[in-house]
Amino acid sequence: MRGVVMHGRGDVRVEDREVPRIVEPTDAVIKVEAACICGSDLWPYRGVDELAVPRAMGHEYVGTVVEVGGEVTGVEPGDFVVGSFCLSDNTCEICRSGFQSRCINGGFIGDTQAQYTRVPLADGTLVVVPGGKPEDEDVIASLLTASDVLGTGWFGAVAAGASPGRTIAVVGDGAVGLCAVLAAKALGAERVIAFSRHEDRAALAREFGADAIVAERGEEGAARIKELTGGYGAHGVVEAVGTQESMLQAIASCRPGGHVGYVGVAHGVSLPGDVLFRAEVSMLGGPAPVRRFLPDLIERILEGRINPGRVFTQRLPLEEAPEGYRAMDERRAIKVLLRP
Amino acid sequence: MRGVVMHGRGDVRVEDREVPRIVEPTDAVIKVEAACICGSDLWPYRGVDELAVPRAMGHEYVGTVVEVGGEVTGVEPGDFVVGSFCLSDNTCEICRSGFQSRCINGGFIGDTQAQYTRVPLADGTLVVVPGGKPEDEDVIASLLTASDVLGTGWFGAVAAGASPGRTIAVVGDGAVGLCAVLAAKALGAERVIAFSRHEDRAALAREFGADAIVAERGEEGAARIKELTGGYGAHGVVEAVGTQESMLQAIASCRPGGHVGYVGVAHGVSLPGDVLFRAEVSMLGGPAPVRRFLPDLIERILEGRINPGRVFTQRLPLEEAPEGYRAMDERRAIKVLLRP
């Protein structure tokens, strides 16, 4: 089969690889129907994360089950499934409390930009899409987002306390931030404010429900949020970048007693204790427990209530993955879908 | 009148000072019936916080109202009152959301180790004790704790999610940590684990409801908590010290999806973003919104359901405040009550 492998900074190749087989009795193997490139894939692409050895890429996927291990009971060959990028047994105490991203037996999937992929802990990781594989490619694209980018934005919005009556600000206008805008609105937030200074992204933020766009950043950005919220700050802020600047901007934009949900993978972040102590905001973040939200997200997508697949501004055959990486790196594309 | 003034490292004096008068129409002046020395008073005493000018000390107090400003309607001369160390109007949006410690018009009281003190924003800061001044000195001592040390431990326990079925760990065996043990138990926690390696403090922790004492610290301490909780970590952890080590110990002791309530005033803390991201715990802390809890705490104390005044292992006349500071600095006393 063909699959994407990163060899080093800026060096992504599509190569021949072994078709994965069942290894553990809790595995499933799926034929990947759609995959995509994540903002976090750009960290190694840009050399921020160094690779010691070549890495098979991809952790977002929808697909059709082709084979299951002897202990798998929840999915069967032929099922069209969405799975979280985090593997989970969905039965341990941590999973049952809704944090499948930290399953005590879990881990991460890591090679879905390929024609086939092996999904460990299939019963606790995969969710069957009712009605089978949708005919509409846009619905498949939206289901694909549930695997990570939407699920992550959704977690950020939940952690930020998005709900009726609340004003939610979103730091970061990448695909996760845009999905957080969609999520905050879908969760009933009264007002959603997106930080953006790129017209294409701001336009999609508005389409996803943003009521206001703020171009200022840092302290100026936070001051603008306070102006827009009677001097108090937002009730909740989603941080979807992962840098020191974006974290401090998120904290400063939030009112005391409010909530910051941070889902940008932290790079070089070090939070001063006195800033946290004075801010007095609830902070929750980390890898999103997408599995918690999947059934709800699938239902919302199939009913057409949300259309998160709009984040894919480019769709390419798997063979053209290197161009997809370039397009995202150069910010020509918000997010790139790959068709294996 | 007489009052405590800190002149520099290790230099605390009781001096003649002006009796405070009403300045703003929202002020009250109270005769301080009992005050005390806070662990945070030791930061300047030890020279960790440098003083540019001498500082009138004290922020915990119970007392009798002697005078009120023209706009005060909630308290009147003769009332026996407990007040928060944080001043609050108790009407702004932040106060109404339960974060009176960050009142948009608020601040901190700062000179209660004295015979009289002025309380700004009296209506929103003071709570009248039903039935007037208690005859029992131990009840007065317990009411005094509600002003900060108990209220702060209580906030830590609430932020840590203390409730039935939960295991709560407490980092720090100072008076705040001990009050957090009491609070976690009073809030219904199934199991409370206190970190301590001092027998007198461990004994009081047990009296306050601790089910287990862990002497290990740092990573070893966190590992011990995991051993005691089926490998998962505590559901919630209260951090009541304020150092880098104690914060990291608290985070490491908490299960993913759990809650860390940090109430130790942060000194030299810098939290690595990747540690927070991987831990995936909710973090909330800062100055305690004591006012939120005061009516409930007063009721519990008057009913004899909690006896937090036990943290005062030494009671001294105000004139002997310097000895009180020494006793706390040398850890001969857990907490010192001062009688003006």
What are the key terms here?
homodimer, 340 residues, alpha/beta, Quinone Oxidoreductase, Chain A, domain 1, Rossmann fold, 2 domains, 7-stranded mixed beta sheet, 6-stranded parallel beta sheet, oxidoreductase (chains A, B), metal-binding (chains A, B), IMP dehydrogenase (chains A, B), ADH-like_N (chains A, B), zinc ion binding (chains A, B)
Topology:
The structure is a homodimer of 340-residue chains.
Chain A (H helix, E strand, L loop, with lengths): L1 E7 L2 E6 L11 E9 L5 H4 L9 E2 L4 E8 L11 E4 L2 E2 L5 H4 L10 E2 L7 E4 L2 H4 E3 L8 H10 L2 H11 L7 E5 L3 H12 L4 E5 L3 H9 L4 E3 L3 H11 L5 E6 L4 H10 E9 L7 E3 H7 L2 E4 L4 H13 L9 E6 L3 H9 L5 E5 L1
Parallel strand pairs in A: 11-12, 11-14, 12-13, 14-15, 15-17, 18-19
Antiparallel strand pairs in A: 1-2, 1-4, 3-5, 3-9, 3-19, 5-6, 6-10, 7-8
The CATH class of the largest domain in chain A, by name, is Alpha Beta
**Radius of gyration of chain A from CA coordinates:** 19 Å
Question: How many structural units, i.e. domains of chain A?
Answer: 2
Using the coordinates shown, work out and report the CATH topology of the largest domain in chain A.
Quinone Oxidoreductase, Chain A, domain 1
The end-to-end span of chain A amounts to 10 Å
- What low-confidence regions of chain A span 5 or more consecutive residues with pLDDT below 50? none
CATH architecture of the largest domain in chain A, please? Alpha-Beta Complex
| Extended strand count of chain A | 19
Silhouette of chain A: globular
How much of the sequence of chain A is in beta strands?
25-35%
The greatest inter-chain interface is formed by: A-B, 41 and 41 residues
Give me the CATH superfamily of the largest domain in chain A.
Answer: Medium-chain alcohol dehydrogenases, catalytic domain
Mean pLDDT over the full residue set of chain A: 97
Largest sheet of chain A, in brief, is: 7 strands, mixed
Task: Look at the helices and sheets of chain A and give the structural class.
Answer: alpha/beta
Question: Number of helical runs of chain A?
Answer: 12
Helix content of chain A: 25-40%
